[in-house]
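Sequence in, structure out.
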Amino acid sequence: MDLELLKHLQTFLTERRNNLFQKVLSERTRHFTIVTEDVYQLHNTSAVMRTCDVFGIQDLHVVEEKVSKRIDKEIAMGAQKWVSLKRYNSINDCIKNLKNSGYQIIATTPHNNSTLLHDFDVSQKSAFFFGKESEGLSDTVMNAADGFLKIPMYGFTESLNISVSVAIILQSVVSKMKQSKINWQLSEEEKFDIEMQWLKKTIKASEEIVQRFENFKNEAPNSK
C-alpha cells in the first residue's frame, strides 16, 4: 500500500470531502453483493448501481451473456464512481467467482418455496441474484442456488421492478446486518484500495498527478 501517494492525493480534496470518504468507507460492506443477469433495460442496471451505493454495497456484478449495456450516468447519479462494477460474459464464471470468494448464491424468486425476506439469515456472506425483467433468473442460477428469497406480496401482481426489489431486499438485510455482531466491515487493505480508486476518479487529471508523484519519488534518492 502506497500510503504516501494516498496522503498526497488527499491534499487535492477539501477536509470535508476527505472526512466524507472516511465516513462512507466505514459503512461499506462486501458481506452482501448484488448480481444482475442479462437485465435488458439500461435504466434498471443503472438504478441498481445507485441503490447499491445508497445501502453501502461495494460490489455490483453484471452478467451480460445476451445483452451488453453501458451504465447510464444520469440514472446512476454518480454511483459509477463509488460502486465497484464487475462484468461477466458468462453466468457460470460469475457463480464460480462468487462461490470461491465465500458467497452463498441466493436466487430471488417468488416461487420455489422461497424464504420470506423477514426470515432471511444474514449471518452468511450472500450474493443476491436478480434476473431478466420478463423471464427472471436462468435455470443455471436456479440450479446453482444455495437458497431462494422472496419479498412478501399481497396483491395480484407477482413481480416488482428490479431496482425496487433490490432496494427492498437491501434495506431489510443491511439493517439486520448492522444490528448484528457480524464482522461486515471492509478490511483496512480494502478501504485503502477503494479510497485510492475514489480519489483517482474524483481528482481532475489524477493520472498526471500520480505520474508526477512517482517520478519525484524515483528521482529523490538520486538528488541526495
